[in-house]
Write a structure and sequence with these properties.
Length: 198
């Protein structure tokens, strides 16, 4: 195989890298940022794709974030690859924060400020019997209701930041390529003048 690792990883190493990156979180964030900036599409399409991925990450549907982000990006004219990269906002470290915030906001929207006692849920038992009605009302409904405004707000923030960053990056790249072409043309003209001299 062309890109096989020199030393294969064992199972515990693979599990660890799912939770904690091999190098660092900052390096992973820089990698995703550069991947987004280097996509070949308009700033609006890239930003729309990233915003769709961020919004999808707030919905309580683990395993379907990529699909929902791709569909939303396609509907709104965004870049599908950017939508997949945008779902990186939802990861094992941020999901507890996202799910807690969406649940609390959803409870606030649905029930107001009234404090109600929440009974412990038997999520494992409901999933074993595929009885989603047991967890819809007390858990998934508030999370879904809370995910919509939070996802839209974060999606808008990421849209604005991504669009301005991509536009600036593409303009710098265009100027750099124009300068490179100008220097190459000057070099060709200089070589041409030297050849023409007797």
């Amino acid at each position: 195989m062309l890109f096989r690792r020199r030393h294969p990883t064992n199972r515990s190493e693979r599990v660890r890298t799912l939770v904690w990156p091999r190098r660092s979180f900052w390096r992973s964030a820089k990698y995703f940022t550069k991947r987004v900036l280097r996509l070949s599409a308009t700033p609006h399409a890239i930003a729309t794709g990233v915003a769709a991925g961020v919004f999808a990450s707030f919905l309580p549907v683990p395993g379907f974030h990529f699909l929902l982000a791709a569909v939303a990006a396609w509907i709104f004219g965004g870049n599908v690859v950017a939508s997949a990269l945008g779902t990186a906002i939802g990861n094992p470290l941020t999901f507890p924060l996202i799910w807690g915030a969406t649940y609390e906001l959803g409870r606030l929207v649905l029930h107001g400020r009234a404090i109600e006692v929440v009974e412990p849920l038997q999520v494992g038992n409901a999933l074993r019997h595929l009885d989603f009605a047991l967890i819809w009302e007390p858990l998934l409904k508030p999370m879904t209701v809370g995910a919509i405004p939070l996802g839209l707000a974060f999606g808008l923030v990421f849209y604005i930041a991504t669009r301005s960053s991509v536009a600036a990056f593409q303009e710098r790249r265009r100027l750099r390529l124009a300068e490179k072409m100008r220097r190459e043309n000057q070099a060709r003209e200089t070589v041409g003048l030297m050849v023409q001299r007797p």
